[in-house]
Write a structure and sequence with these properties.
heterodimer, A: alpha/beta, Four Helix Bundle (Hemerythrin (Met), subunit A), Beta-Lactamase, Helix Hairpins, 6 domains, five-stranded antiparallel sheet, 18 strands, B: alpha+beta, Sulfite Oxidase, Chain A, domain 2, 4 helices, 18% helix, signal (chain B), OxRdtase_Mopterin-bd_sf (chain B), Oxidoreductase (chain B), phosphoprotein (chain A)
Chain lengths: 857, 172
């Protein structure tokens, strides 16, 4: 727009100048060639010459000798008139002037006079008087012609002057226009200049500022062009890399800063975008890399890089030496790891110690119970009571510490299972009733507000907390009452409050805060009398936190106390049976049973037989599935114990045959014995008609209880969905211990409890014989396993066999490791070679531990 | 008005310039008829009473130049024949730097020496090859080659183009 305007203005100017120039040139042309000599002179001369002619004529009247002069004057006048009739000068006169009457008459006079002039003197002299007379008239004509011509010429020169004036005005106007135009142009130019200057200044300023920013940056800044040639290298970069700016600029950044061996291998790594001449992707713009300084010192660096897109793209790198940071990070990590390890070691130590203490305690308590079978004096009986009471207290303490340690080790998590609140509280009251009677207290529970029942939550821990609260309440109340209230806190029944209210001695205000702390006992006679570790409420508090609930207390000294817990529970419709509930079944079969034991592992076979025969049951052995089927067909046993993994025929198939056939035992309960039952496996057991499932290693009490249950006909078959209905007692109680303590590699090598039980149940000579065989079998099989290919089909069975052998001796860590391998094989995965190789070491450690343990025994 | 000299004129000029030098410094004969032109003043070559007088035949006998040009006083192209003023001045041995040319009607004008050049004005005595009567600017007319040399088209030169010439006084 502006350009167009300027162009048209320019064009107009040029047009004006050209036009004016043309005008001026024409004028100059006109002036350079004079169009006339002095016209006025000529006209005046005409007058004069005619008068001279007349004078000559007058002279001639008196003196005829003057005739020559008359002729000369005539000729001169004639010539004048001829001159004024021709030529450009004369043509400038108007037609009207040329053809005016006076001129015509003058010319007429001249033409008439010529013959007289040219004629003889006599004739001329004769005519002279009339000629003179005529000439008088002609004088006037010449005069008027001259005047007319003058007027005409004046007009011409006027118009010409006007033309010139006009031209001058044009020139002035155009000059003015040009001047204005030039002024405007100059102004515009000035503006442009100022603008350009301003821009240049701004650019300069920005550049200076940028330079300052770059130079003062504490981080090294390196700018390269597209090929990676260094263009900018700031002070921090100089300090970091040891090159001066002059040295660095112009060199390849990669060669300058990246270690030569990295470059040599063409492994640009994070700097690949530079090599590929492209913009780094967002995830490529921040990275850590190892760079080198001038003296080839390597250091870790953090780089922010991007490409400035332009005609000549630039790469900008912000480089930070993170050596110190890395070092600090490492130190911090190390410190943290050390602290964590220390904490873990402490917790583990506690857990191990508690665990270790439990075994001998159990031994002591068991021995005391056995002592009661002997005849004792009253005094001995009292002493035994005290010993037992102290022992139980000690066991309680150890269990508390174990809970605490597990909690602190982070190995504990709340369980989610359906249970019945009513049955939980029934059981609670029933359990605590003996204690209540001891102190002469009444113990009851009731709903406050609308009644409910089913809920999903961690019933076991909830029961433990409530038992603790109730126990405390009973201990600090004499001949009073303890009441448990339960109430839903919201309409949706997602939060439940349990209140344990007593009318005992109460707790002072100042003590209320600290009773939930660990190892706090209130200094009261009751407390000393009642005993306790002071851990109970601390553990309760932790359990509540674990379940997402709260615990608190209110009390009035002398009036009583109120302990409450609030816990979020998911309501469910109805719960069939409560696992915690004491069952109607006795803990052991009421009569000697005829048992068929189908088991291939000799050690297991021996142990189970020992357990059962020790209880007075009759045991028949079958060494594999086929033998079991055969035996079951011939004789009706009370119950069949069926190992699952066996040569010739496995337990599942054998059970299928027994149930499907018409043998003597087609309807006899079958209990599966398995190292570790996967849910899908148990579904399989159920389908073939097995009655229950026991997880190895077999514990005597569980075995006896399960036998009691299945032989009483109470558990007709495996429940259809064992995971959802844990009420199936034999399954759940057996499987649970495994879930509670997740299988971890750091499991102690030996399960002291199991080993202790084994040693106490089996005579020492037999133990030694079994151990000898165990060592031989394990040495051989573990060595084989450690070198077996992960996809070897024999892997699963061998691992199973070894795991089975480990069980009775309490070689727990190895058993679990083998179990994991077996599980993997069963699920179609392949265990890693490292895992297999690790078995050899584990076995060696386990064997040493076992040997030293047995030497001590 | 502007124009190149015609080829004919150029040829004429070329032919007629050469003999000019040869005419120098010869004795002037006396005029046999009534002189048309009387040159007086600062001259060295005289023939009559201290003047250099020329009749028609004498002029015609000199080296002449013919050219064709337009003038502002005439209509159409005019062919003039005459003696170059420079030749004439050389012939009379003019020593001054200026001449005063006077006409029959007593019109007078001064012509400086710078005009007396080869290819400059002529003292014409023939127009279209014929003698010029007094009734038509005769008998002599100083004519400049206006068309050939446009710089002569000025009022000053026009004023010097004196017709009905009969006297020349060479001024010191």
């Amino acid at each position: 727009m502006q350009t167009g305007g300027a162009a048209s203005a320019l064009l107009l100017c040029v047009g004006l100048v050209v036009w004016l120039g043309w005008l001026v040139l024409r004028e100059i042309d006109d002036f350079s060639v004079a169009n006339s000599d002095n016209l006025q002179w000529s006209l005046a001369q005409a007058d004069v010459e005619f008068l001279q002619f007349r004078l000559a004529m007058k002279d001639a009247q008196d003196n005829p000798a003057a005739m020559e002069d008359v002729r000369r004057r005539f000729d001169i006048f004639y010539s004048r008139m001829v001159t004024m009739s021709s030529g450009r000068v004369f043509h400038a006169l108007r037609e009207s002037v040329q053809s005016s009457a006076p001129r015509m008459r003058v010319l007429d006079f001249l033409e008439k006079t010529v013959p007289l002039i040219d004629g003889p003197d006599q004739e001329f002299l004769a005519e002279l008087p009339s000629l003179l007379q005529q000439s008088e008239q002609v004088t006037a004509d010449v005069r008027s012609f001259s005047l007319a011509a003058l007027a005409a010429f004046a007009e011409v020169s006027d118009s010409r002057r006007e033309g010139i004036t006009e031209l001058m005005i044009y020139i002035a106007a155009v000059l003015l226009a040009l001047f204005i135009g030039l002024t405007l142009l100059a102004y515009a130019m000035f503006r442009l200049f100022r603008l350009a200057q301003k821009r240049a200044d701004a650019l300069q300023f920005a550049s200076t500022r940028m330079k300052t920013i770059v130079q003062t940056s504490p981080n090294a800044i390196v700018v390269t062009d597209e090929v990676g040639v260094v263009r900018e290298f700031n002070t921090a970069a100089e300090a970091l890399f040891g090159f001066t700016r002059a040295e660095a600029v112009g060199r390849l950044a990669l060669e300058l800063m990246v270690p030569a061996e990295t470059l040599g291998r063409h492994q640009f790594g994070a700097l690949a975008f530079l090599d590929e001449h492209r913009r780094p992707r967002p995830e490529e713009q921040h990275f850590e890399i190892t760079l080198q300084t001038r003296d080839l010192h390597l250091f870790p660096a953090e780089i922010s890089a991007d490409r400035a897109e332009a005609d000549n793209p630039l790469y900008v790198f912000y480089i930070r030496d993170i050596s110190n940071w890395k070092e600090a990070e490492e130190q911090l990590t190390e410190a943290r790891d050390r602290a964590l390890a220390g904490e873990r070691t402490k917790s583990e130590f506690l857990a191990v110690m508690s665990h270790e203490m439990r075994t001998p305690l159990n031994g002591l308590l068991g021995a005391m119970q056995l002592m009661r079978d002997h005849s004792l004096t009253e005094r001995q009986g009292d002493l035994l009571d005290r010993m037992q009471s102290s022992g139980r207290l000690l066991l309680e303490l150890v269990n508390d510490v174990l809970d605490l340690a597990k909690f602190e080790a982070g190995k504990m998590k709340a369980e989610e299972a359906p249970f019945s609140i009513n049955r939980l509280l029934d059981g609670l009251v029933e359990t605590a009733q003996p204690l209540a009677q001891t102190y002469g207290n009444e113990l009851n529970w009731r709903w406050s507000g609308p009644e409910g029942d089913g809920a999903i939550g961690d019933a076991r821990r909830l029961r433990q907390v409530l038992l603790n609260l109730v126990g405390n309440a009973l201990k600090f109340t004499r001949d009073g009452s303890v009441e448990v209230e339960v109430e839903y806190l919201d309409a949706a029944r997602t939060e439940v409050e349990f209140r344990v209210i007593d009318n005992g001695i109460g707790i002072a205000e100042k003590d209320l805060a600290r009773i939930f702390q660990d190892f706090e006992t209130l200094d009261s006679s009751y407390a000393r009398e009642a005993g306790g570790t002071g851990l109970g409420l601390g553990i309760a508090r932790r359990f509540m936190r674990l379940m997402g609930g709260e615990i608190g207390a209110e009390s009035e000294p002398g009036e009583g106390s109120l302990f409450w817990i609030r816990v979020p529970l998911t309501p469910v419709e109805a719960v069939a049976a409560a696992p915690e509930e004491p069952r109607d079944h006795p803990d052991a079969p009421q009569r000697p049973l005829d048992v068929l034991l189908v088991e291939d592992n000799e050690i297991n076979r021996f142990i189970v037989r020992e357990m059962l025969e020790g209880e007075g049951h009759k045991v028949t052995i079958a060494e594999n599935g086929q033998a079991g089927v055969d035996a079951a067909a011939l004789h009706r046993y009370d119950v069949i114990l069926m190992d699952i993994s066996m040569p010739v025929m496995d337990g599942t198939t054998a059970s299928g045959h027994i149930r499907g056939g018409t043998g003597a035992c087609a309807a006899v309960p079958i209990i599966a014995l398995t190292a570790h039952a996967l849910p899908e496996e148990r579904e399989r057991f159920r389908k073939v008609g097995m009655t229950a499932c026991l997880t190895k290693p077999i514990e005597r009490p569980l075995l006896l209880r399960t036998l009691a249950e299945v032989t009483s006909g109470d558990v007709p078959a495996l429940p259809p969905e064992p995971g959802v209905a844990p009420a199936a007692a034999p399954l759940l109680t057996v499987v649970q211990p495994q879930q509670e303590v997740p299988a971890a590699p750091e499991t102690e090598l030996l399960d002291e409890e199991r080993l202790g039980a084994f040693l106490s149940e089996v005579p020492r000579p037999t133990v030694d014989k079994l151990l000898e065989r165990f060592y031989a079998e394990m040495d051989r099989n573990i060595a084989a396993l450690a070198e077996t290919a992960p996809d070897d089909p024999d892997l699963g069975p061998v691992a199973h066999q070894c795991a089975g052998s480990c069980g009775p001796f309490g070689v727990e860590a190895l058993r679990r490791a083998l179990g994991r391998i077996e599980t993997q094989v069963k699920r179609g995965d392949q265990p890693s070679r490292a895992e297999l190789a690790a078995l050899a070491d584990l076995w060696q450690q386990s064997r040493s531990a076992l040997e030293s343990r047995l030497e001590a025994a | 008005m502007l124009g190149l000299p015609s080829l004919r004129t150029l040829i004429a000029l070329a032919l007629l310039v050469a003999p000019v030098a040869a005419a120098a410094a010869k004795d002037l004969p006396k005029p046999e008829e009534q002189p048309l032109l009387v040159v007086s003043g600062a001259i060295s070559n005289t023939n009559l009473d201290g003047t250099a007088s020329f009749d028609f035949d004498m002029l015609e006998g000199l080296d002449t130049v013919t050219f064709t040009t337009k003038t502002i006083w005439t209509d159409g192209e005019q062919t003039f024949t005459g003696v170059q003023l420079s030749d004439l001045m050389e012939l009379v041995g003019a020593t001054g730097n200026e001449i005063k040319a006077t006409a029959i009607n007593d019109y007078a004008v001064n012509i400086p020496r710078e005009d007396w050049v080869d290819g400059g004005p002529i003292v014409a005595f023939l127009n279209h090859g014929e003698k010029m009567p007094v009734r038509n600017k005769g008998p002599l007319w100083i004519v400049y080659p206006f068309d050939q040399r446009p710089e002569y088209q000025t009022e000053q030169i026009y004023s010097r183009a004196i017709w009905q010439l009969d006297r020349i006084i060479v001024l010191d």
